[in-house]
Amino acid sequence: xxxxxxxxxxxxxxxxxxxxxxxxxxxxxxxxxxxxxxxxxxxxxxxxxxxxxxxxxxxxxxxxxxxxxxxxxxxxxxxxxxxxxxxxxxxxxxxxxxxxxxxxxxxxxxxxxxxxxxxxxxxxxxxxxxxxxxxxxxxxxxxxxxxxxxxxxxxxxxxxxxxxxxxxxxxxxxxxxxxxxxxxxxxxxxxxxxxxxxxxxxxxxxxxxxxxxxxxxxxxxxxxxxxxxxxxxxxxxxxxxxxxxxxxxxxxxxxxxxxxxxxxxxxxxxxxxxxxxxxxxxxxxxxxxxxxxxxxxxxxxxxxxxxxxxxxxxxxxxxxxxxxxxxxxxxxxxxxxxxxxxxxxxxxxxxxxxxxxxxxxxxxxxxxxxxxxxxxxxxxxxxxxxxxxxxxxxxxxxxxxxxxxxxxxxxxxxxxxxxxxxxxxxxxxxxxxxxxxxxxxxxxxxxxxxxxxxxxxxxxxxxxxxxxxxxxxxxxxxxxxxxxxxxxxxxxxxxxxxxxxxx
Length: 503
Known about the structure:
Elements: E1 5-9, H1 13-24, E2 28-32, E3 44-47, E4 50-53, H2 62-70, E5 82-84, E6 89-93, E7 103-107, H3 111-121, H4 125-148, H5 161-167, H6 176-181, H7 187-192, H8 197-200, H9 213-221, E8 224-226, H10 230-243, E9 247-249, E10 254-260, E11 263-268, E12 273-276, E13 278-281, H11 285-292, H12 302-306, E14 313-322, E15 331-335, H13 340-347, E16 358-361, E17 375-384, H14 392-410, E18 418-424, H15 426-433, E19 465-467, H16 478-501
Parallel strand pairs: 1-2, 1-13, 2-9, 6-15, 13-19
Antiparallel strand pairs: 3-4, 5-8, 6-7, 10-11, 11-12, 14-17, 14-18, 15-16, 16-17
Helix pairs in contact: 1-10, 1-16, 2-16, 3-4, 4-9
């Protein structure tokens, strides 16, 4: 088989994984990345001795990373060290006028302790948790094998007995909220098994029950921290690609993709052209189609992209602070007891949330290299609707509101301790990553945007163009993007084999 030369546009996890698989298969691969560092949304911010993961910060689904590196006869620990977190995360529920009205729990991998915790909120909830986790584990094993690791781009791919037999009971048609209500009545318990929907860019009412599998990921598989942060994982995968001959070019802003299979060209700002047999785009799918391609080479029109449900954007504040953060865990969630208004402000009536659910990450609790001595590293993330107006005045006011909320609900008053501060929101997601509507993740995992209803890895309008990353299958999140890279590479190689056999 003739191995094609490949240009990968975008150095996020999907693009880096695609490059590794294709280079390992003997392709000549070049990755061109708009920004000055690889990683896409998993960029790193360094300032005055502090180092922040700017995007993803949870290392979940360790089996996916192990599988990825094993494909190259490697292990994750060949490139970075891992610490299992205990607790996995801490939850503060907001109280009324005073913090004393609130509630705090630690979520751990000690299942006996978790059963007791659930039972303390609701009679019978300990046994219900056992049943829920058993179902979650089954959903994970079946879902990963038959719907994630196996790419199914067409509806007819689902119409075979093996898929139908294994899909029974996965709840593809019901929502997460409907599914969870069958097990738990207490709203706090429902939140504990649904919080991970934020990683899927959905809400309890618009995400398929299939994603109950995330509770198996959380409670059974564990939550880890790669020493050095997610940036260390980016470096490890980039090193793996370099070992196999991948060429990386950063600071290479792509302005157009033209040509056809065998004679593709990627045009860069400044007029340079990078030529190859095929192109794989890990850039935002909408941006690629609407901005980089000629109209005749587009699969979807503007109305299609207007009709999509995008995952949330985020309001992020990166803080270097004096002293420690004794009240917080490495991962901390601060939740209102009724989070429905926040989800409504994201998906139904877009607005800055009045009573937000938010996430705090304090990696210096685990890693003393991410902050100077005597200081702590913290970032706060509030999920918000994509496309919101985020003027400086709005951001300043919301930042103050957020700091007040953190103080009131966790007991951590940061105001007089901040020595470094940076903010990142809708505008920066749009400008830095060419993200549609400033989404932080891509297309949400709604029922109408799952499986074959997501955009395909192959372009059916431009022969020689492929896609990887969070807009296509299997979806958003670092593990899913690694698998997307495998699917995209398989598509490139399969088409090359087919063409060899027909010529």
